[in-house]
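Researcher: Structure prediction, please.
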Amino acid sequence: MDKLTFYAMKSPEKLDRIANYLAERLSQDVRRQRVGFVMIAMEALDSLLVSCHAQSLNLFVESFLKMVQKLLECDEPDLQCLATNSFVKFANIEEDTPSYHRRYDFFVSKFSSMCHNCVADPDVRARLRTAGVRGLQGVVRKTVSDDLQVNIWEKTHMDKIVPSLLYNMQVGMSEELESPKDEDHPAVVAETVFRDLVCRASYGNINSVLKPVLLHLDDHKLWVPNDFAVKCFKIIMYSVQAQYGYIVVQMLMNHLDDHSKQLPRVKASIVNVLSETVLIAAGGSVGPSVLEVFNTLLKHLRISVDKDISATQSPDEKNFQEAIINTIGEFAKNLPDYQKIEVMMFIMGKVPPSSESQPVKNSKDVLLQTMLMKTLLKVATKYKTVLLNNAFPSTFLDPLLRMSVVSDPGIRRLIQEIIHTLLDRHDNLLKLTTVRIPEQISTLKLTVEKAQRQDIMFAKKSGPLFYWHLYKNAEMQNNKVDNFETIFCTLALMFVEMNGDEVLIDSFRFALGIQHMAKVGDLPITHKCAIHAIVAAHLNLISQLTAVPALCEHVAVVIARRKESAPFYLPAMAFNRKNTANSYPEKDVVLESCMFNPDTISDALRNSGHDTSSLVSPFMPQNVIGFDQVDLKKSASDIHSLNISFSLDSRSSSIESIRKSVGEEITFESLKKVLEMNPRAKEEEQKERQKILEKFTNGPFEDIVARSEAKSEKFANKLNEILEKIAQPPQAAEPLSKDGLTVPIHNIQFPELFIY
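Model: Predicted structure follows.
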């Protein structure tokens, strides 16, 4: 063997004849089933293949591949494994000048069939399957590095390679691989080869790998259960190049679109796989079209709601909807905060319009609103609020608050929970969820920090919006216990997160306002008791946080009176879900001694240095944003209401700046005039404007008045002249002469533009 190798290396031109001779001998030995001689011949070929690196190796390789093919066509498992090992050695050799006309179609087909071998002997079956998987790996390595060779990424090849690998991986999932020989198990080798295949895929080829994967999962019904599908896509996401991860997500989205008419269980499994895929994509973008992904998921959510509009949804449909909501949350988790706000605004745009005056009557729309609000809440939990004005832009806050006064109590509760999530910056939410009156507020261990300037500005701008909608929420006739609990939580979080004098006074005004509503409003007795309990708990909270002794004393006295004579006005009883009709008073009698006194509260705050001028005026709920109805007469611009004022001492308020405030129409003619304008004329016009400006800014006031009176007198004279002309009766028009009617048409002088 050494002599043969030395001779071939010394005379590489003889490689072709050596290969032909070995091929003839190998064919004879195969026919005669002389396995020993076959192995010797293949060993010689392998030795020559590894040792000789020359341009003449191409001629040798052709004969070598023919011999490998001859052995693979045999039925003997040992010879097939021998041929596969030789091919793998050949695949690991980097040729200087590879042959571009070489074909590997037979090897792809043969190795793929070996991956599906089903002989009775388990050891032989495992050997052949492992050999087939290694052979496919050799084909990929040999061809993937050079684009001028066979394109292994073609559909005909990938449709054989990928399912063969997945088949062995799937079979291995049911077996426990714990022995030392597990590294040679077909499932382990197939997984390694599959990772290598995905890792080598470029931008244009990743689809060629993913399509057979999806088709294999469909054909073998491997979506339900989806353990194997999750495993496959985890391997893909961990192996694919990071910048191509969004392509995998997009392929799954398209696959979900193609299966929109499948059973909910199948779609839910696809969405769950998508969710796992997004988790792995953390730290990188899920693609340039983020909103397109959310749009697709929301579209499927709407389709699911449209399909199942019955009162009792099927469990599979509910699971599918929950899977979509969770997946959207995982998508949002990987996005930067500014994009999370955009996503929440995008979801709000998909909500069917509704308001207090125009409630949604269709149960399908109510269900869709509920699902979208759950989705919005899921995204909100992934957002970390830093500044409230960033978390609540007006384009998001306005429709959110509009939805907070819809007729459905479940949707109103979800809206309040969304507001809680975005308001809570110091993890106080869980401490304020329950309506209670602790004797010492310090037991709640609240985190209260001084409000920033931006938060104070936000409170001044948007505080009235929150309070108006909370007031409308409190007076809803179909409120549940959960609704009142969320109202209290919103009030408490607003005060804790926007801590300031303005919020303090507004909180007292609102609390006294809903107390008055509960006293005089037409509400059920249970609602009135709940509102009074909210007022007591809220005033107890803010009085102890502000630490005004007189205020704390008044609140404590009122609470003590309620414990004695009106316990139904306290949270312990008003929010007890085990209450019956006998738990409440038979007559709705207002106990003034158990009410909080506005004058006492005002005096206590005034004596502590707070400005209570706004507290004197009662809380009057007004639709500050006019969601439900808009008065066009009031909203239209009124010329008499315009008040243009500018300082004569400021050059910035020149005539030119006033003209700039008016929208300038840019047309082709105007641009043409600018280009054709003489620079000198432009400078002269600018100087003239400057002179006029200086006359008004630096000239004596008497001269300006005199000049203005002269212009006014001239204008009045001209106006009188016009009015006199209008007042004169119009002269009768003379009849047309007959001669004018008999002029031949060919003598009439038409304008040039009228002639064709």
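Model: Residues 531-633 form one domain.
Researcher: Thanks, that helps.
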